[in-house]
Amino acid sequence: EGGGGDRGGVQIAPPGQGGAQIAPPADDEVHYGITCGRCMMNPIKGDRFKCSVCDSYNLCERCYDHKSECHPGGHRFFVQKAMPAPPGGTAAAPPPAAAAAAAAAPAAFAVAQ
What we know:
Blueprint: E1 5-7, E2 10-12, E3 30-31, E4 44-45, E5 48-51, E6 58-60, H1 61-64, H2 67-70, E7 77-80, H3 96-104, E8 109-112
Antiparallel strand pairs: 1-2, 3-4, 5-6, 5-7, 7-8
């Protein structure tokens, strides 16, 4: 067959001939209320690395590669999972008290060095 085909009653459009556009999955995590200690990204998008020694020192994945330039050597970092998005899916950061509680709450993590 040439262009589109008939597969079980479903018409398949040839590439570049219109049809539905499917957005790529948004698999980057968003860490609302968390700021990168090096580049000041807020919220941190992608992986978040939290210092195991300092109470509230976090790096985004890009800055983690430069941790020796911006944070004391010997401090280990943990990969932190993002908290669920705020209600309504807005990009607004949670209130400071909620952000502090979220940062202090135990979370699943993996050791990153």
